[in-house]
Amino acid sequence: MRVLAVDDDQSILALLQTALSALGLFEVSIADSGEEALRQIERAEKPFDCFLLDIQMPHMNGIELCREIRAMRAHHKTPIVMLTAMSERKYIDESFVAGATDYVTKPFDFYELRSRLSAAQRILQEHARANDSVEVARKLKQDLDSNLAIALSDPIAMNGIDRMLGFTEFENYIMQLNRTKRFTSHVMAIRVRDVEQHFDQMSNADFREAIQETGRALSKFTRKMGNILSYRGNGVFLCVCHGKASVLTPEQNEPLNRMLATMMSSRRFDVTFELEFGPPVSLRLTTRSGALYSLAKAATALDATPGVVSSKLMRLGRGQAKQSQSQRNDRLAYEAILQDLLAEEPSLNRY
Question: What's the CATH code of the domain at 90?
Fold first, then answer.
């Protein structure tokens, strides 16, 4: 895995290059500034597989560099890990919004860093397989709707939408927030009403585009609040709110739906989506299981039917189209974590 580490501290660069190269899994190049990193990226005969970026650097900081790398076609999806001493939420938010895949704070543990880079490598391999599949589909000139067949539970990509994070990036963001012990942060679900009916009646391509337009409307509506968003499948968006002022209220539901109706009408959709809000759920839990439980609780909070959390969660991952092996593995791992949590803390079944 070809890694470019960027830091203005030569001792950190030497440590990264020596330690990671010794593992035998990584070929590490180094750059001591954002400008030098861009020059190396431009000169590289083969694109880098991953980037490790410090934030605090003169002239061009790591967040600006992350944004520059993301603008390059060859690195639109290349894993970018921020490796920094900055633990404030402002830097975490700006990094993920700029396109970061993960965030590691200094001083770091090399075993943890190796684990993060291995995860980044798996993401890279999944992207490569996805690109190969798209290329094969293009060559065979198959129908667009069958090529891009999706299940209702699929987390549709939201590329180019401000503050809208991908599935993996969003969970990494939540993990990082929990490490900073943010006690005023909440997550809430925003769901498309009658999403099953819309999914059954629309083509795959139209449904995908309508969900993406909904994401654009949410991003536009929450711009001043600075909320972080992610689409989780099943017509559910999750919204992270920092402080009471950024929590969406029932009074904002109607103006948001009016904005969405206007935007969908301008795109000439035959249907109009309507959104409903779930209650805010605290993100104060500081374990990985606790954080995932908070996300799952927010996603299921809109369900009025009494029942056990575990039974609801089992329904979240079910879709109508065939899932890829990686998606099934992700869901099984996700469900296992939640089941372990419920086994350890039976009181959670009351929710």
Answer: 3.40.50.2300
Give the Cβ contact number of residue 183 at 10 Å.
9
Number of domains present in the structure of the chain: 2
Q: Is pTM, for the whole model, over 0.70?
A: no
Would you say residue 27 lies in a domain?
yes
Same domain, 94 and 186: no
Q: Tens-of-pLDDT digits for all 351 residues of the chain?
A: 889 999 999 999 998 888 888 877 788 999 999 999 999 999 998 999 899 999 999 999 999 999 999 999 888 888 899 998 888 989 999 999 999 988 988 877 777 778 788 777 777 677 666 655 555 545 554 444 555 567 888 888 888 899 999 888 888 888 777 666 556 788 888 999 888 999 888 888 888 889 999 999 999 999 998 899 999 888 889 888 888 888 888 899 899 999 999 898 887 777 889 999 888 887 765 556 666 666 667 766 666 433 333 334 444 444 434 445 545 544 544 454 455 444 444 444 444
What separation in angstroms does the CA of 327 have from each of 1, 8, 62, 233?
23, 38, 31, 12
Cβ–Cβ < 8 Å for 293, 285:
yes
Strands (E), the chain: 2-6, 27-31, 50-53, 80-84, 102-105, 164-165, 185-192, 228-231, 236-242, 275-277, 281-282
Domain identity same for 181 and 237: yes
Domain interval for residue 8: 2-125
Q: Is residue 135 part of a domain?
A: no
Do residues 96 and 154 share a domain? no
